[in-house]
Input
Amino acid sequence: MTATDLTLRPFYWRATNLFPEKEIVSRDSDGTTRYDYREFGERTETLAGALSALGVELGDRVGTLGWNTHRHYEAYFAIPLMGAQLHTINPVLPDNHVEFIVNDAGDDILLVDPGEPFETVERLWDRLAGVREVIVMDDELPETDIECVSVYDELVANADSFEWPTLSEDQPAGMCYTSGTTGKPKGVEYNQKMIYSHAMMVATPSAIGIGESDVVMHVVPMYHVNSWELPFSTTMAGAKQVYPGPSPSAETLARLIEEEGVTLTAGVPTVWINLLDYLDNNNADISSLERIVVGGSAAPRGVMRRFKEEYDVVIEHAWGMTETMSIGSVSRSKSHMQDWDRDERFEKRTKQGLLSPGMEMKIVDEGGNELPWDGESVGELYVRGPTVIGGYYNRPQANEASFDGDWLQTGDIATVDEDGYLELVDRSKDIIKSGGEWISSIELENKLMEHDEILEAAVIAVPHDRWRERPVACVERKQQSTLQEDAVLEFLEKAYPKWWLPDKVIFIEGVPKTATGKFDKKQLRDEYENTDLPQTPGKDDETGDND
Amino acid sequence: MTATDLTLRPFYWRATNLFPEKEIVSRDSDGTTRYDYREFGERTETLAGALSALGVELGDRVGTLGWNTHRHYEAYFAIPLMGAQLHTINPVLPDNHVEFIVNDAGDDILLVDPGEPFETVERLWDRLAGVREVIVMDDELPETDIECVSVYDELVANADSFEWPTLSEDQPAGMCYTSGTTGKPKGVEYNQKMIYSHAMMVATPSAIGIGESDVVMHVVPMYHVNSWELPFSTTMAGAKQVYPGPSPSAETLARLIEEEGVTLTAGVPTVWINLLDYLDNNNADISSLERIVVGGSAAPRGVMRRFKEEYDVVIEHAWGMTETMSIGSVSRSKSHMQDWDRDERFEKRTKQGLLSPGMEMKIVDEGGNELPWDGESVGELYVRGPTVIGGYYNRPQANEASFDGDWLQTGDIATVDEDGYLELVDRSKDIIKSGGEWISSIELENKLMEHDEILEAAVIAVPHDRWRERPVACVERKQQSTLQEDAVLEFLEKAYPKWWLPDKVIFIEGVPKTATGKFDKKQLRDEYENTDLPQTPGKDDETGDND
Output
């Protein structure tokens, strides 16, 4: 019926032809690069020419280990537009993960940022047998023993321009690996159609809403579900883009917002907590900023309130996974809620929100039965839709555990309220199963982090003879605080039933984090699972109706 | 890579599950129906049950001849969601067109509004051999000799609910016929994926931009490229919808805007010119209205200005065709144009604007060579993209004339300026080819309609021995005007070179219109092509460089 497939080509066409003078700003160790979509297009076409000259063909996988820069952005389009597959790899993963991922994907060319990412590749070089060429995303060659290394900027300056072929929408275009807190990382593939559909969906006001007048700063790492896929929608819209480079500090982010007039950005809560701290102690004008999309974990309420009240910036919670191409729900008030009082509206917005268009969801109990949307019933979230994967790369066993027909079993434990707002209660592996009831570790953590003297807190399940599992809180106090266990428990007791209270509060120096910045509860569990627990009340001791 | 195809089911799911209480308002001859997405869902599911009981199966075509009402809207979802094909037919076409269209499509069930549309079917009944059942979209049976007639509301009240099957995205879901001002109407088919992709695109701020807080009044007839496909995006967004029923007067529209808080609507210019007239003479509060998307032909500048200045309503020009599922470009200022002065911005917005995301375009000369984007070079517009058809239904000859590979040759003559704004100069069949140069009939018409004493004007090409064709203006004066030919020409002479001036001005009573409300120039040409023309200057008499 239509002669044309859903591919990235028209997004690229639109940005380079309709908005050739719109700016792209990129920061790296050398300073700031500033160019427009016209030049972006020229460089992208010669990058593809260079990759083609290096033998990259339809269906080949090209890996990247890089930060958020304009070169990495060029690769985001050059690789899929030539019919190859963009495989973004997290350069801060442990070496054995990087090794596994590159070899599992069979990448034959790697685009690598100088510094740490290149050093990682050097260390692993003998074990990356399939890699034919390493392209350093820089303007000069680093000193190295690896022979087949070339310099990105030289390739781009000297190659012939490449003419985009007509591709099938089924052509694999992207690949990411899940962070793999349990077991080996699992590969996830996106074809042209999925990236097209997700970008279009993200751009609608029903999801994030991105228009030409936005200035989007990409803070989510480009190796983390392709910066939540935002570079694709942003290009489609022809919006100005800001790439803040490797490990941007809060100061860098504040400066970029002020100087470039950033209107929209996104990232995990920690980044924005640090920005708030920076703004408390420094002068910066962030008045252009309208919205921050926050995912990964929930932003503390105090942070949401302060951004709104002091800076008129709305924090929008979002939910998503590598398996859903990131963004799968966004929290925003419905129009009729404008009449609600502020606190009620705010409560709603702290949830993970409304499912994005194109998707469907349900929550189910352990027997697979669908649960009501009452804001109380807790079950595993199942989702399906054209932006949800249908299976992992070469992992039949994982597929069996994670899919029920066309439904993805997300492993996220959630409620849905009467208004259709999704709220994550926990990851299924983090929920604490105590005396036949579930205790949300995330809810306890968020409550703990509302305490004035607590900086961060992670709550883990510790095995328990009688109750199966009991919560233990690992708490990092703020400097100078002398907070003690009984005060912590007293604080929680105001909000939760006794059987929810942690059996122990352990004061630690910094919550360990995964490579993507999430709390690494696996490490905490390994360390504290043999903690001696006092005899404590379980659900039945309070209600008398169990056991 | 994904297990789920692009189909309408998630749009339906989203509206009925996430926005069950959002209103749908529908006006028909009996008054106003008001319900919500929950009830819409229930009725849609039993309508599908009723159609299934009548034998409608996967791939069957169901025709509709109806106005803009909630029943027609229910059919918009019930038919495609069950895997059948929604074939919307223009009930005000001449009988022989309706007959041809129903038989060409092979519709076996018709949903028909009472009154005129039903009378048309009655008149044609003996010649619609394939139609098994006529469902009258009403709550009671009209008196009729046709035996196989049933009543919509009874079917919906009594049928079992239908469970939506899992469909392929390639499943045909929609069908429309082009209005066919030349030759037989041509069928155009849309599959599930095309409707999904177009709806998503329309919802982005890069095209129209529709969000949950919008209140959308569907004025474009539902038989006219499915009301420009807007019911699909609106449902996806969960926005409130208003269906104004058969032939809504300006008064009805004004009242609905005021009472329902309409924010967004769309339609051909005449509708909004009439609304402006009504508002001049009556009190109505249209302050909720933010935008009117105008297509079909260009809105006169005076009308655009008055809406903006007097009512703070922005008229957004759009371009599209049945072959592009309507909306293919929308005109809006780019963000950097905010610094331009008002008139410059306004000039930009009078064009047809920026191509919508997902599409690509070029303009080519008669030799098929691509022309520059300089705002001067005039050529035929070619477009391609996943929302553009790849061929007509069963019309190989038309396909040969209208496609160049995956490019649709639109038959629209256009320029594109340095900023990428598309401007339609004419339909290729309406452009006046005079002395080797082209004269835009549309441009002359628009200019004429800026004259205070001119109500409507159509400019046609009349054959000419020496110059091949020359323009003739058919002008309808406003009441009481005694405007004469020389004054008309004098008015045009201020803006155009002498050789552009019509060779004759004919004063007529009302410009004839096609069934879709466009000027019927074919009828005017038939009537006036033998008009005696005086000896007039051609291009070369003025410039001396031709012939």
